[in-house]
Write a structure and sequence with these properties.
Blueprint lengths: L11 H27 L2 H10 L6 H16 L4 H22 L4 H17 L1 H6 L9
Length: about 140
């Protein structure tokens, strides 16, 4: 498909499944960002456990919120997914560094991309996981 061609019309079922798959990480990221603004004691303890000062909580919350906002806006969703991948990669590295389980940020990252892939025909054409014509 050339850059001038319009992508095929998406299946509404795929779009809705993509929206549902995208909703869970969005809700989790909004909750996580909110906690960074509210700074409850378990968050402060968690930051200390990972070796981060409490003063970083607000900046992390802003970063997480902005990346999530970019992800939910259709015109900027790919940029948001890329930025969330970086953010969640940092979270994964933080957990790995101290020997904590790290599957949660990895799963969230996979869900971010899976939801976007399901609801975006342009992304499906760039990343053709399923082929319609056997070769």
């Amino acid at each position: 498909m050339s850059s001038m061609e319009t992508p095929p019309r998406p299946s509404m079922a795929l779009v809705w499944v993509g929206r549902v798959v995208s909703t869970l990480p969005v809700l989790m990221l909004i909750m996580s960002a909110s906690m960074k603004f509210l700074k409850p004691p378990p968050l402060i303890e968690g930051l200390a456990k990972f070796g981060y000062p409490e003063s970083l909580a607000f900046g992390l919350g802003v970063t997480e919120s902005l990346c999530t906002l970019l992800y939910v806006i259709p015109q900027t969703s790919v940029l948001g997914a890329i930025l969330l991948t970086g953010y969640l990669g940092g979270a994964t590295a933080t957990h790995v560094r101290i020997g904590d389980p790290f599957l949660a940020p990895v799963i969230l990252g996979v869900m971010v991309w899976a939801g976007l892939w399901l609801r975006s025909p342009r992304l499906r054409s760039l990343i053709p996981i399923l082929r319609r014509d056997p070769r």
